[in-house]
């Protein structure tokens, strides 16, 4: 099974100022965000990863670079892990956007939303899921890798992994520099962690190598309804 560590970027001044940054250029990690990224990198240091793939936006690349520090890995970027394209909403204050009639639709029926001058949230989800699946296929079933992205994108990925309709994705919370983990198997995805902000990560280290026969037997037990990978 391929294990994907979903990391939201650290705090930015836009986050703290209540601004919808979207694809605005030059949005960097704040001091707090850099501290968060360094702390998460230290937590994940014992976990071997095969790749670190990031949204191309500065705040994500900076978070990914912290995780890559000390590893023999180059940070890759993938536009499909980039933030939702909010169009005319980009750069606006959230308190102002909350008065727009579309805001209620975003909260209650997001699958119906296409941002003015931007993209539909369902498109955001589809491209992000496709990106994760592409990397899974490239790295293979025994790999663990890191995807650094944005709150709405990670929430959409988790909704897909949970088997939830996109209209329910607002019930999922993904804080800055949080860690969420999904294990993808041939049977289904297993959501291991959501919005994890601290604690041990020993369970994310790869298990001791087993023979193919034993591994197949173990997978069969999981598929039989054990409920955990």
Search tags:
single chain, 229 residues, alpha/beta
Characterize the structure shown.
The chain is of the alpha/beta class and 229 residues long. It is built from eight helices and six strands, in the order E-H-H-E-H-E-H-H-H-E-H-E-E-H. The chain has a six-stranded mixed sheet, sandwiched between helices. Helix 2 (31-44) runs parallel beside helix 3 and helix 6 (121-139) crosses helix 7 (151-162). The relative contact order is 0.20. The model is unreliable at 213-229 (pLDDT under 50).
What is the CATH T-level topology? Rossmann fold
- Silhouette: globular
When the domains are counted, the total is 1
What percentage of residues falls in helices of 4 or more residues? 25-40%
| CATH homologous superfamily heading | Phosphoglycerate mutase-like
Mean pLDDT: 92
- Round the Cα radius of gyration to an integer and report it: 18 Å
């Amino acid at each position: 099974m391929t294990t994907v560590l979903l990391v939201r970027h650290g705090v930015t001044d836009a986050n703290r100022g209540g601004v919808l940054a979207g694809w605005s250029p030059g949005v960097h990690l704040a001091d707090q965000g850099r501290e968060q990224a360094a702390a998460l990198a230290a937590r994940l240091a014992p976990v071997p990863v095969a790749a670190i793939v990031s949204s191309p936006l500065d705040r994500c690349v900076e978070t990914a670079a912290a995780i890559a520090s000390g590893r023999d890995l180059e940070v890759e970027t993938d536009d499909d892990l980039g933030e939702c394209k909010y169009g005319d909403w980009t750069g606006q204050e959230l308190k102002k956007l909350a008065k727009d009639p579309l805001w209620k639709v975003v909260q209650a029926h997001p699958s119906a939303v296409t941002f003015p001058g931007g993209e539909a949230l369902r498109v955001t989800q589809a491209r992000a899921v496709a990106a994760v699946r592409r990397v899974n296929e490239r790295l293979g079933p025994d790999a663990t890798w890191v995807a650094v992205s944005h709150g709405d994108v990670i929430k959409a990925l988790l909704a897909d992994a949970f088997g939830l309709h996109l209209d329910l994705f607002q019930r999922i919370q993904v804080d800055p520099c949080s860690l969420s983990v999904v294990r993808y198997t041939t049977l289904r995805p297993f959501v291991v962690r959501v919005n994890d902000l601290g604690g041990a990560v020993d369970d994310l280290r790869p298990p001791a190598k087993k023979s193919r026969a034993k591994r197949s037997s173990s997978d069969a037990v999981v598929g039989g309804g054990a409920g955990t990978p």
